[in-house]
Amino acid sequence: MTAIQRAKGMQDVLPEERRYWDLIISKATELARLYGFQRIDLPILEYTELYQRGVGEASDFFVQKEMYTLEESEDVMLTMRPEFTAGFMRAYIQNGMSSWPQPVKLYTIGPAFRRERQQAGRYRQHSQFNCEILGETDPAADVEVMLLAMNLYRTLGYQGLTFQLNSTGCPVCKPAYVEKLTAYLQQHMDKLADIDKERIQRNPLRVLDSKEPGMDELLAGAPHIVDHLCDDCEAHFADLRGMLDALDQSYSINFRLVRGIDYYTKTVFEVWAEGIGAQAAVCGGGRYDGLAEDIGGPPTPGVGFGSGIERIVLGMQEAGIEPPAAEQPTVLVAHFGGATKEAAVQLTFQLRSAGIGTRLAFARDRRSMKSQMREANKHDIQTVLILGDSELEQQSVMVRPLDGGEQKLVKLTDVVAELQK
After folding, report:
1. Do 57 and 90 have their domain in common?
2. Residues 191, 205: contact at Cβ < 8 Å?
3. CB atoms < 10 A from the CB of 339, how many?
4. Are residues 281 and 363 in the same domain?
5. Which end of the chain is more exposed for a tag (fewer CB within 10 A), N or C?
6. 353 and 409 part of one domain
7. In a domain, 59, yes or no
8. Cβ-contact 208, 164 below 8 angstroms
9. What gap in Å lies between CA 253 and CA 164, rounded to an integer?
10. Helix count and strand count (H, E) for the chain
């Protein structure tokens, strides 16, 4: 019988790789709290309508059928979350967070699910670190989430970090720009791939993000949205750039930078890094001031970013960044079975209660001391505690350092203090 394999697009995070995850989550949590964010945990399943109205049916989630959706009843559809921002806004509205002191600064860490083509660092179940500021229009909030994202990568050891920055306008100025962009693209339909012709019909801005051959040259002559912003969007973008300049923070205006989800307004950004292969972007985010209204709530501005943990791990590996080794027990309790085994079990749990990492040598029957010492060496144990019949009679344990030090007999009542020294 063929052994069952894990499902396509999923992964097992083994202990060696988990070292990266633990470091990333620890640094992300530390930074979020430093910036005044509070943790929230959102359900994995949401009503499909949340994403239909929030993310937009023109997004790849719907057009390319990337979402995992199930039918709960004849008229109720549930979807495993493909992204976090719509869920944040739904939670803000439903839980009355508008009555909290504003703005509300939230973060979360958890899995998202997308039925997409597998790539390096991308899985159908992937985990994200997301930070959102809700209820604030000040471009300083944009700067805050941008620098939180940037500082996470700095803290983890990434090099050559910079922002790619753009404005996607707002409902006042975006429609007129989309008309100009569409008119330009329609003049070059013979040069467009089929996928870009489809994008013109459902979301022309996505053509700016095209990776099809020849598009770099063609789009070089396309109109730039930053040249067509309304007064409010222009002032917002200028204020944002002024703060980044004052902070001496490197950034480039990238007129082709758009996000793959419809709810973005004004600021969009990505963090780029050097030394991680061809794909320089490591995370992205932006402002979504109209999302709350799209899902039936009152006007509520918001800005945030999401960073995939698997993508961070891959970047660290490509850049040769090593996380610290996971801490392991440094003590092993060896025994000879029978009464000595019972005493060894008691001693092991006593040491763990005192905060001393300890392994117990397992053996259903009597096991040779040579075998137990091999186990100690295999696990880089520093000290072996040996419990034999003679040690039990003396209510003591033999303490054997594996660094060449002298072994000695220590009373069981004193062994914790001896090891803590």
Report:
1. yes
2. no
3. 12
4. no
5. N
6. yes
7. yes
8. no
9. 6
10. 15, 16
What is the C-alpha separation between 59 and 284, in angstroms, rounded?
A: 17
User: Under a CB-based contact definition with an 8 Å cutoff, are residues 310 and 11 in contact?
Assistant: yes
Cβ–Cβ under 8 Å, residues 244 and 163: yes
Could you give the 3-state DSSP secondary structure of residue 69?
strand
The answer to whether 287 and 198 are in contact (CB under 8 A) is no
Q: Could you give the 3-state DSSP secondary structure of residue 100?
A: coil
Q: Could you tell me the two tokens for 326?
A: 């996971």
Characterize the bridge pairing of strands 358-360 and 331-335: parallel
* Integer Cα distance of 209 and 414 in angstroms: 68
Range of the domain at 253: 15-173+229-318
Answer yes or no: are the C-beta atoms of 84 and 293 closer than 8 Å.
no
Residues 24 and 321: their CA atoms lie apart, in Å, by: 12
**Domain boundary residue, one of 297, 318, 339:** 318
Q: Are residue 340 and residue 307 in the same domain, yes or no?
A: no
Q: Are 11 and 126 in contact (CB under 8 A)?
A: no
Give per-residue pLDDT as tens, 368-407: 999 999 999 999 999 999 999 999 999 999 999 998 889 9
- Which CATH number do you get for residue 365? 3.40.50.800
Three-class DSSP category at 231: helix
Dihedral sign for Cα atoms in the order 371, 373, 377, 381: positive
Q: Which residue has the tokens 């940037």?
A: 150
Alpha helices by DSSP H, listed for 160-219, are: 174-186, 194-202, 215-219
The predicted-structure confidence for 35-91, as pLDDT tens digits, reads as follows 999 999 999 999 999 998 888 766 666 656 788 999 988 889 999 999 999 999 999
